[in-house]
Amino acid sequence: MKIHTLPTLLMGLIASSLYIAIGYKGSALNVVNLTVSALLVMAAAAIALYKQLRQASQLDIRLPELIAALTIIWLFITIFWSQTPLLSFYTAWIISALPFGFLLRGWLKPWISDQQLLILLLSLISFYAFWATGEFLNTARSTHGPMIYQGDFGALFAAGLLPVNALFLLSPGKNGQTRYLLLTGLLGIALFSTYSRGSMLSYLMCLPVLLYLAHRAQQLTLNKTLRLGLSIAVAFLFIYFYAKWQGGQDMGAKTDLSDGTIPGLSSINARIMLYRSMLDMIRDYPILGSGIGSFTGLYPQYRNPAEDSAGYFGHNDYLQFLLEGGPILLLLWLFPLILIAKILLSKAKPQTNDTTSLLTASLALAAATFYIHAAADFIFYHLGLNLLAGLFLGLAYPQSPKPRPIFSMPLSEPRLLSILPTLCLCLGWSILAINSYITSNMEFQSDWFGTRDNQHIDAETILFYHQLSPNHTSPLIRLAELYHYQALHETNNPNQKASIEQAFNYTLQMLQQSPTYSRYYLKMAELVQNFPDYTTQIRQKMTPRLLPPSSEPLAKQLLKRALTLDPTSEAASIDLALYYQRHQQPVKALQVLKQATRWFNTPGVNALSPQDKSRQRLQRLIKKHIQTLGKGIANTSTTSRH
To answer: Is the peptide bond before 401 cis (omega within 30 degrees of 0)?
Structure first.
């Protein structure tokens, strides 16, 4: 490979990776985008690292690089005790993109200059700025772009604005100033078109710091300040009045305070309730955390009924990191903030002749916008944003003069050593690709809930995937569902006994794999009640992690555990109430069902979509059971009095 073609190849890989990652659909777990994006960025890393180590005489390790590597290692270690291991596996890849992006900038340094990489990042952000502007002009509503969630989309523009502002302040000629001022206006329109409060605030909190540093570096004039401020104000006013003129979404509906809350996606009160629930969760996992990405599986049992968010994220990445990765992950994640502060302090000294200092500070501030926004959102749970944050921080990190390394290791066989990290990167991506392939293909393998004809299930394929990755949740779920269906519904099957044993086996494996999965406690309770001969054998296999020792019947324990793990589950309430009815305890059955109605009638919980027909049917069934039980108890009381 010719040396002049290498930068083009590397920048093409990085740009493609970021483009695919940004189209990653916000908070949704798109495993195909994740895998392809990871492949491209890891290919760039493998090429750059291989060529760098081949030419090196010694390996220097500096503190920020060591912290970045330890962060990646710890993220993947938490999978071993995670409550949701498969989701943790994917989330570890997503979160590790920030420290990986920081390391990648250092590996790319000999072949891609800071200017080239910055132009690449700003070009990509500008492309999406045109996208956001076009979408807003067409709809007069807050723009989402390819990301589902506008907060993530806005984070792109908040970060991109600061380097552009710095280039405007540093530009000596009118043509350069006009060019960067127009780009500021475009990115400003894109930012405000998302109506993202967090994105706006993170940018507006960093802008005064940039202006102060420009003043210290004697690069700020009254004329530049007024023009920059006017450009941002015009962008905001354009969005505000265009939406009013077109009868679109009122920005004031999301940014004005009303009765102590901010209307929109969620209120301040709801966030406070969410944070309190997270603190309760943290108390139960104080040392090592619950495993990265496990918030979704744990949250239902801690949720305040009045809290009306979707429940997938904690809307505060720092609290969520403390929960999922313990104090170790939180401390590792706060280290970049220390590095950002150190960079900004070093640039606060007047340096009249050093025009690069202000640009370096703006890159550190670009990374800081992600950290500010993460205090009230889930910014660090998006692959593309993490890559951008890592690359911006890597650009700001002082490479020359190089900071003193913690230790240096001479390379006697640099060519041999250069192969090892390349192989590790390939191995890591291969594991991700296998898991993504299984997950994607399992979506096309039949029966989840017995809604399809059982004979269409490709059991051999599911078993193959299970053998390929025994701890992968998707094949395990399908196997548990398959044999559960056969055990209960194929009573004339000569192999029914084998199906029953397999149903117990795979359902138990599911519980061991994901001990907070409420649905499979219900599945196990159904099996125990239908096949009581297996009760003793299953009880012996139930560890204290799944069920604490108790003298209660196993089925009752399982049903109560399911309802404790997910109080919002109408199915758990119905199954437990039916259990009490069968055991002549109608009063307890009625209490369970009334508690269920108190839950799903709470604001936020009762707002079911028209498509959620299954939950609506269950809620109607609960109300019907309450009426029947109430009449039965009343008749019993009347009869006993007579």
So the answer is: yes
Give the N- to C-terminal CA distance of the chain in Å, as an integer.
Answer: 98
Residue the block writes with tokens 């072949």: 111
Query: Would you state the torsion angle of the CA atoms of residues 448, 454, 458, 462, taken in this order, to the nearest 10 degrees?
Result: 40
Q: What is the pLDDT of residues 372-406, one digit of tens each?
A: 999 988 899 999 999 999 999 999 987 555 667 77
Give the 3-state secondary structure of residue 142. coil
* Cα 284 from chain centroid (whole Å): 21
Q: Which residues contact 420 (CB under 8 A, 6 or more apart)?
A: none
Torsion of CA 563, 312, 393, 145, to 10 degrees: 170
Q: Which of 522, 527, 523 is nearest to 560 (CA)?
A: 522
Contacts of 543 (CB under 8 A, 6+ apart): 512
CA distance 93 to 87: 10
At 59, phi and psi to the nearest 5? -105, 115
What are the tens digits of pLDDT across the range 478-507?
888 889 988 988 877 788 888 899 999 999
Residue 591 burial by Cβ neighbours in a 10 Å radius (0-12, 13-18, 19+):
middle
Over 60: is that where the pLDDT of 605 sits?
Answer: no
Nearest CA among 215, 44, 239 for reference residue 135: 239
| 533 residue type, one letter | D
Q: Which helix (H) or strand (E) holds 469?
A: none
Rounded mean pLDDT of 269-295?
89
Sign for the pseudo-dihedral over CA of 612, 616, 619, 621 = negative
Q: Which residue has the higher pLDDT, 454 or 277?
A: 277
Beta-bridged to residue 258, according to DSSP, are 261
List, as one string, the DSSP characters of 371-396.
Answer: HHHGGGS-GGG-HHHHHHHHHHHHHH
What is the pLDDT averaged over residues 11-36?
A: 82
Q: Which two tokens stand for residue 19?
A: 């483009």
| Residue type for position 385 | L
pTM of the model: 0.86
Q: Tens of pLDDT along 258-281?
A: 444 444 444 577 778 889 899 999
Handedness of CA 554, 560, 566, 569 (dihedral sign): positive
- Closest C-alpha among 196, 221, 203 to residue 162: 203
Joined tokens for residue 52: 């760098």
Please give the share of the chain, as a percent, with pLDDT higher than 90.
42
* Mean predicted lDDT score pLDDT of the chain: 84
Residue type at 87?
L
Interatomic CA distance for residues 464 and 519, integer angstroms: 24
CB 153 within 8 A of CB 142: no
* CA 562 from centroid of its chain's CA atoms: 25
Number of H helices, E strands in the chain: 26, 2
For residue 242, what are its two tokens?
């265009």
Decide: 122 and 366 in contact? Cβ < 8 Å: no
